[in-house]
Structures are given as structure tokens and as C-alpha cells.
Amino acid sequence: MDSNTIIIAFGANMTSTLGSPSDAIREAFKRLCVASFRPVAMSRFYRSAAYPAGSGPDFVNACGLFRASGSPTDILYLLHEIESGLGRVRHGRWMPRVIDIDLIDCGNIIHPSEVTLRHWRDLPFEEQQKATPEQLILPHPRLEDRGFVLIPMREIVPNWVHPLTGQTLEQLVEALPESQIAGLSPLVADDLRE
Q1: Distance of alpha carbon 5 from alpha carbon 15, whole angstroms
Q2: Has this prediction a pTM greater than 0.90?
Q3: Where is the signal peptide (predicted)?
């Protein structure tokens, strides 16, 4: 992947003025395209249980591969602008949301440093609930724990390799605990790949 190739994860689990969670993801995709993100590939939409268990209604999730220019921080700023424009209010981690757009990878770089990525990646779950990074970390530090990202991501970048660990995407999927795969299922005829 070159520096202009990015992977974005989408999630939504609240009905809003946009319609269903799937409608919110479709609208986010349209707004990304208007903001000069060029789509390369889009996964199917998946239904997944809210994380952590019991924290809200089921999510609809998807991943997209895009080409975009700008620094990773500039790209993240645009993603937050689109989220805000779609009604996203940040009021806590792992809460129900109208839309969530996460920058998962940007040109397969490690940002801002290997030490920072390792720190956030290895943070115990209890600390994850309390602490939020003050800066962008790439690839997404919780990527390896999230079946709802890895499974859709496998559809669009099956040969992706984690720049820190050297693990292939298939190895990351195989290492997922059953709890991250149980209940994850594609939504039939409910996606952007038409």
C-alpha cells in the first residue's frame, strides 16, 4: 500500500434522521467521495453485537479501501467532520452512535511511533475504558481485537500485513477469540457494492 491508500472502518447502531444504521454508512460513504476520497473497494455490510457486550443495539459494520491525499492527521480531521455533519456526538467510549468512521491504516505506516503503538495496543481492557489517546495512532491500536473490522477488512485487502507485528490479516482473523466472531454475519443485499 502506498501513502495515499487508506483503510476506513464504518460502524453505526442508532436509527437517526439519516434512517437505519446502514443508511448512515451509505451517507458517510457518499460524503467521503464528495470530500475527494476515491473508493477502491468496499466490503459487505455486517451485523455485529455491540462492544463490549450489552452496551447497546447491534451494529452494522463495513470497511472501505480509499485513495486520499493529505497527512494522516488531516484525513482523521475530515473523518471527524463527516461524523459531526451526520450527527455524531462524542459522549463516551463504546456508546451507541449514529455513525463511527475510524481510520484503520494509512499507507501501512506506524504513527506516531512504534513505542506509542505498542503502549496503546497492549493496554489492559480496564484501562482502555478510562484512557483515550490524545493523538492519532496507526494502525488502529485495537484492530487485532475486533472481528467486526478484521472480517470486513479481509474482503478488501486480503494480503494486508500488520506493519508492527508482521502478521498477515488471515493470521489476525485466525487468532480472534470466538466471542469476536460469534454473531458476526453479512447482511444480505444491504451494502454499497452494487
Answers
A1: 31
A2: yes
A3: none
Report the DSSP beta bridge partners of residue 42: 64
Q: Which cell numbers in the block locate residue 46?
A: 455486517
Cα torsion at 122, 10, 108, 140 (round to 10°)? -10
Phi, psi of 51 (to 5 degrees): -120, 130
Q: Which amino acid is at 27?
A: E
Alpha carbon distance 192, 134 (integer Å): 33
CATH class of 5-186: alpha beta
Task: Show the 3-state SS of the chain.
Answer: CCCCEEEEEEEECCCECCECHHHHHHHHHHHHHHCCCEEEEECCCEEECCCCCCCCCCEEEEEEEEECCCCHHHHHHHHHHHHHHCCCCCCCCCCCCCCEEEEEEECCCCECCHHHHHHHHCCCHHHHHHCCCCCCCECCCCHHHCHHHHHHHHHHCCCCECCCCCCEHHHHHHCCCHHHCCCCEECCCCCCCC
Averaged pLDDT, groups of 10, the chain, 194 residues long:
90 91 95 94 93 80 95 94 86 75 96 95 83 91 93 97 96 92 81 52
* Cross-strand pairs, 61: 11, 46
